[in-house]
Amino acid sequence: MGMVIALIVIVAGSVVFQLASPWWTTPIASNWAQMDHTLTITVVITGIFFVVINLFVAYTLLRFRHRPGQRAAYQPDNHRLERWLIGVTTLGIVALLAPGLVVYADYVSPPRDALVLEVVGQQWQWRYRFAGAQGKLGFSDARFVSGANPFGLDPDDPSGADNVVVSGNEVHLPLNKPVKVLLRSHDVLHDFFVPEFRARMNIVPGQVSTFWFTPTRPGRFESMCAQLCGIGHPNMRGTVVVEDEPAFQAWLKTQPTFAALRAGAKPASAGQADSLEAKGRALAQTKGCVGCHSADGAPGAGPTWKGLYGRTEAYTDGSSVPVDESVLEREIREPQARVARGFANIMPRVDLTEDELHALVAYIKSLGAPPAPAPGTAQR
Amino acid sequence: MSTDSAILRVAGSRQGDGAAGLAGAPVTSRGQPQAVVGVALWVFIGVATTLFTLFIAAYIMRMANADAAAIAMPSQLWLSTALLVAGSVLLRHAGVSAQRGGDGMARAWRWLMAGGACAVAFLVVQGWAWQLLLARQVGPAGNPAGSFFYVLTALHGMHVAGGMIAWAVVALRAGRSGPAGGWRIALLARYWHFLLLAWLALFASFTWITPEVARIICGVP
Amino acid sequence: MAYAEDDSHHDVPQTFIRKYVWSQDHKVIAVQYASVAIFVGLIGVLLSNIMRLQIGFPGVFDFITPERYYQYVTMHGMIMVIYLLTALFLGGFGNYLIPLMIGARDMVFPYMNMLSFWVYLVSVIVLLASFFAPGGPTGAGWTLYPPQAILPGTPGHEWGIILMLVSLVIFIVATTMGGLNYVTTVLQARCEGMTLLRMPLAVWGILTATVLALLAFPALFVSGVMMLLDKTLHTSFFMPAVVSMGQMSDYRGGSPLLFQHLFWFFGHPEVYIVALPAFGIVSDLISVHARKAIFGYRTMVWAIVIIGGLSFIVWAHHMFVSGMNPWFGFFFATSTLIIAVPTAIKVYNWTLTLWRGDIHLSIPMLFALAFLCTFVIGGLTGLFLGNVSVDIPLSGTYFVVAHFHMVMGVAPLLVVFGAIYHWFPKITGRMLDDRLGRWHFWVTFLGTYLIYFPMHYLGVLGMPRRYYNWEGYQFIPQSAFQLNVFITVVALAVGVMQLLFVYNLVHSAFRGVKAGANPWRAASLEWFTPQTPPQHLNWGPHLPVVHRWAYAYSVPGAAEDFIAQNAPAGDGGHEPQPYGTPEAVATR
Description:
The complex is a heterotrimer.
Chain A: H1 2-20, H2 33-64, H3 79-107, E1 115-122, E2 125-130, E3 164-166, E4 170-174, E5 179-185, E6 190-193, E7 200-203, E8 209-213, E9 219-225, E10 237-243, H4 245-254, H5 258-262, H6 276-286, E11 312-314, E12 320-322, H7 325-333, H8 354-366
Parallel strand pairs in A: 1-5, 4-10
Antiparallel strand pairs in A: 1-2, 2-3, 5-8, 6-7, 6-9, 9-10, 11-12
Helix pairs in contact in A: 1-2, 2-3, 6-8, 7-8
Chain B: H1 6-11, H2 18-23, H3 33-63, H4 76-100, H5 104-135, H6 144-177, H7 182-208, H8 211-218
Chain C: H1 16-20, H2 26-56, H3 66-102, H4 110-129, H5 160-188, H6 201-232, E1 243-244, E2 247-248, H7 256-290, H8 297-310, H9 328-354, H10 363-386, H11 388-394, H12 398-428, H13 434-461, H14 478-511
Helix pairs in contact in C: 2-3, 2-4, 2-14, 3-5, 3-6, 3-7, 3-12, 4-5, 5-6, 6-7, 6-8, 7-9, 7-10, 7-12, 8-9, 9-10, 10-12, 10-13, 12-13, 13-14
């Protein structure tokens, strides 16, 4: 009897859960509502099978549970019934598969006039690229990648000079215009996934993968990496801002071109003060430091910068030193030389000029400990 | 018509030595040993065929890439192929002679030894081919044609080496069991034929599946 | 190699070492396999509990660093799929049941059988050694995708991944040796009257799974060897030109997708290697405990074989969003949904076996019913993921995690438990404790349902899998984090309850109620050995002779509600005629 009750409770509970739970698809912000509809069809058809089979089993248990003197029937097969069941099941399967494939046919056929967005995934940050006035994306390859050229664009390809290059994890898109996303990586597998857009695809180093969608709702949307790419994977987050066309064009103009980047211009954010710390903060974004080092104390793949300056840091080689400018500079220049205890030895060497290094250190210092207490005050 | 397939019925009830079992000494299995080991050998050959087929499929997919370049096969490989063919022929004779019995056993023994020697010589010549390629600066890293050559010849060589272990076991028992054990040599010969066929498939792949052919197969423009 | 016919000269083992350690007896080897598998499975449960602590209570447990978290995720997955489930179903149940169910004295190659266990044990030791290697075990996920698995940024990319791959290669050797034994034994060593279509479905399930294993593990071997060479010799099978941690590597031209194709060509049949023995075994559990012949035996056999065959052409449904040629999606979605049909038939037939049965709610029956319920959910959610366009937003989320745990972790595991409660009296001559068993059953069944059913909804929401934490994501409501706490608490309870099961196993083996030869009044051949537990060579001086199938239950006109498979032919209970033929059954 317990099993009968359990099955009935499970069926009822599951149905109620489906109808009442707060967890379902995020509000859609793209043209792929058809995926949601196919999901609903699937829920309905599979739901029917789930309810019918489980309740049938519960009823069977109730009616045919063992009682003294009872004997089972002898019915080793029934070919007509089996054929009928195969038929019904096949119909159900076709009812599921057909809409799914129709939607998929649309998914693999991007519209010709789509805006092309290149997304470059890198451990552990996002960069983006748009074609410039020429309308063509320049050639890129891993062999061109350097600190100054993180996109790996071919400097000799004239089509690349006017490409708009966006670092810093945030990209803007115009509302209601189809976007064909070209996905590239120079290191490992990633996946660019914004749940509200539904559409996504893995990024494979050595090739270009693609998907398309049309943003249909303005707003700020969080993107995440959805293919395990190392220990910074959960921190590889980005933002997609969907706005109307004029605002998008205005934003696009604030982003540097590849030519400008090569000439040494820093990616500027409108209205930002030119202080050393502000420069350092911008660099922390563009050089990818924020992939591992938080500014607010949140744990990550690397030590948080909040309170780092002035703290005594312990290292895996047993040493411990109070963190000052020279310590920071050495850590950045030679990350493999010494590793903070509790962290893995995975910090990459980043190309920085002396000025950039000073700016970065100034920024880290600004997040550091309060000034040294006056003599006589208690140490904390 | 019956849905019960003929295969199932044939493989099904067998008149084995059930009668002997009822009469006295415990009988452990109903199949004759040569049938049992024969089936097991076919299964193993099936597994190894799957292994080499998958490797060749990987080879084709990888060779379709832009960085692959065909490498010239060292001429030693013709010698090693000939040694494998010789080994197969010798072992087949050994199996046939052993099952005939009488003074066939002595001849079988000689063919068996010669067949084993051919297999050992094969491995030596393969090593020689490796040396030649390394001298030509074709190593496992770099050109995938080189990588696959070393991996596949090593894998095949290990299967030959495993066959040598079986050869040693068979050689030790053949002395003792007389003509009734001739089937062991026959099964060993079957495995030798498999090794030859596998080698021919690999050799043909190295020679004929060039990057151009691979690209055609994979539909790469 | 020894084959069984030589056993007329074979000495019965006398010493403790020969009887229980270096034993060639399939029953001992089965218990050895099962013991190691359960031991390593408990480690897997512990790892999953630690993972859940991090997911439910992020930031609370300092010792769970991101590095360790990903290492535990990886080791948990690999241990459970390969070293627990595959080894337990094939090496444990396969070894114990096959010879007894087909009337053989032992496997046809007992020496190789013994070797296969010790090689399996070596593979487990190598795997666990990676916990102590410099850099710790690999943290690349059980799927071990390149290029990240062998590049800096992923834990264990130096030694951990090497030990993992070496361990897998060794395991494949063990499985191949075992597989050769099981297939050859079924084909060659069945007793008189035991046609293939009189074998219990447990044997069909394990046999088909073994064939799958023999043909699918080579793909894992190929991909594993190639990745090992990429790591150690710097070949570029899977490694494109990469810039890793700011440094240009010397790899060129390799294809990460090639690895994924090879891996999943193995990986999909692998899940059927786990599922098919469960299907076969649960058919037998339901039949015995409902006192009714399995409904549609031949259809069930064909379904197992067809599912096994189809399992080789669906692999890329694991790769719909991998960046592979998008046109493959059409084919693999279709083949995947086709495989649902024979699977659904099996579910109907289990249900129809219960209908008009005489259902005893013993613990094995309870577990079988729980299997039915959870497998229905797990199988149905597979339809979501197999339908390519529905899969696109669900891939890489907790929907996938919930699906595969339900269909591979929960459902087959419930069958494992039911099978152990069912055959324990055969193996030891004693019953497992009933009260402890019912506690174990209810907590495990309801607990795992409560863990994995709601988890699907987190996936629909878009919550990504393999995340150390989700702090700061606005699209994830606070309630989702509360659900994670709930799931963690239930998972810990279910984890602890398994210790009660282990206690029951050990305690009842020595102190359990004595069972008698056939406590469940089953009809299949394994219950009719002269001694219980069966002694070496199983059948005494005479091999059994079989006159009917294994499902002669509640035969009209028979005195008892079951007729033993080896009862005299005149007792009736013969299997149904092949459809459409009027001829008499071949052997009487």
